[in-house]
Amino acid sequence: MVAYNWEDLHRLVRLGVAASVLLSVAAATAVQRPHGIGWRVGCLVTALCIGALLALVGQIYQTGADRWQLFATWAATMLPVAALARSRACWALWVVVCSVALHTWQAAHHIAADLWMPPRGADATAMAAVALLCAALWLLVRLWPRAFSTQHPRVLQISLYALALGAGAVAAAQSQRDTLWYVALFSALVAPAWLLAWRARDALALAIAYLAAITVGLVLLVERLPPNWLLAAAGMLLLASSAAVYHVTRVWRLRPHAAAHVTCRAQTDPAPEPSTPWWLSALMAVAAWTSALLCVAAFFILFQRTEPAVATLLGIIAIACGLLMMQSTHAIRGSFIRQIGFACSLSGQLCLCVTVLLQSHPGEELLLAFACIALLCALLGGMFAHRLLCLVTAILLALVWLVLQGAALLPLALCMTLATLVLWLRVPHPAAWAKALQHAMTLCSLLATGLVAIGETPFDSPVTFAVSPQLAAVLHALTALVWIVTAWLLARPYRPSRWLLGLASAVAATLSYAMPALLLAHALALVVFARGQRVWLALTTLAQVGIVALYYYNMHLSLRTRAVSMLLVGGIAVGVAALLARRHRSPEAGA
């Protein structure tokens, strides 16, 4: 009611409502335990309410203030709140508001024809100011960590450190005039940061410093080199990233707490190899995939000067070398070598595919040839990601070939989803290749069900469903059967509950003619939830949200049908999830 009549309310009433909300939140925060979860959340909401009140004042009274003045006032008024909160979220909000104030101030004072789209390099001054602000705040947090965050101040330090170097890198890379000044400013930020990180044996901070420095150097180098020297720039990037990876890896292996842990162990008890963090693996992947680009460029240069037989031999050699390198078990350089092998294998596959394409007439049969190459490379071994990517490529190419041959997508999606459910339900502890096949089939099934939902909407789509009404009825019946059997199998240990669940599933399955893709996605989500696959559960949930959005705009279904279908399917999903959670809490009950 208040939202509906908001525009008709008097301006003093609107200000009173906003001020009362702010005071209520502040009062509720004041009674919380200092620096507890309620205190931190209340301070964050108070800071947001301050910004909303300032925006409302500017809207009502039309003060004529610029946007940067609004954000600057907000930053100034919320600074005491952030200081009292000692929360990472409040300080992050304060940094964001200050950054927006600096950017809007720079845009307001920049002499340009279009302030909304300033020319390239116009944001360099604002980014440099943001870098200095984050660097100053990082130094304060480093000196007095508990004054800024009561929980994990290390996270706040690393975030400000990354923001300072990232903003400085953007300023140096975007600058058109006074480039040397911005590069000097960036160097003044990176050099002491690198020195402090090296003395503290902080591998993550070292990785951030190296990444920022390499990015700025590469951008400046590419802008000033002639086009025929770009391959040399890629080689320099490979050398720089490889050196950075090697140094960061050594620092990570020799960090103080790891060295102390190894020293305290008995001599007869070998220390396990420390796991590589995700950010170090990502830095290794940058260097490895840069070498992959060089390999691809070299292969294409060789294509122009070699016979097809030689190009085929080069592709096979690259695949073999890649598979051998992916078997590396070296403690320090193993991850980097495996990434290089991954890249070499993909380059060899690309070499073979291009050779087949150049020596054959274009046609749909080439898709099967490419799929066979990817499938063969997946069966030969390698990393899990290598197997997964090759299997996904082979399955998608085969799916595209079948669709081009005139096959309807709904039976293909049904068969793929059914095979995926069988793999998850009947192979609880798969081998390496079967595990990769499970994940590849899951991804392809989600893609196929999404295409089914797209093809059934009135949107323009290349997917067609040229099936007879009888065949369509059979397919929808099979979809309903897959849903019922899946729900039944997952609820087997609970005899009193599975009858009720089976009845409710049957009721929901009667609406499979309206939303077959949603039923298939729900069945897949229930199975991956039962197998404890959190990542796939998140992806299937996102896919279901997209499918629901597509069905919402399906004009061929009535609003009642859409609402009842979504309600029933969602209710069944919640019921099965509750049963599975109960099974995990009391495993002896399902025995």
From TrEMBL:
InterPro entries: DUF2157, DUF4401. The keyword Transmembrane helix applies. Keywords: Membrane, Transmembrane, Transmembrane helix. Pfam families: DUF2157, DUF4401. Residues 277-582 form the DUF4401 domain. It comes from the Bacteria. Residues 2-91 form the DUF2157 domain. The chain crosses the membrane at residues 12-31, 43-62, 92-112, 124-143, 179-197, 204-222, 228-248, 278-303, 309-328, 340-360, 366-385, 392-425, 437-459, 471-491, 503-528, 535-553, 559-581. This is DUF4401 domain-containing protein. It comes from Lampropedia cohaerens.
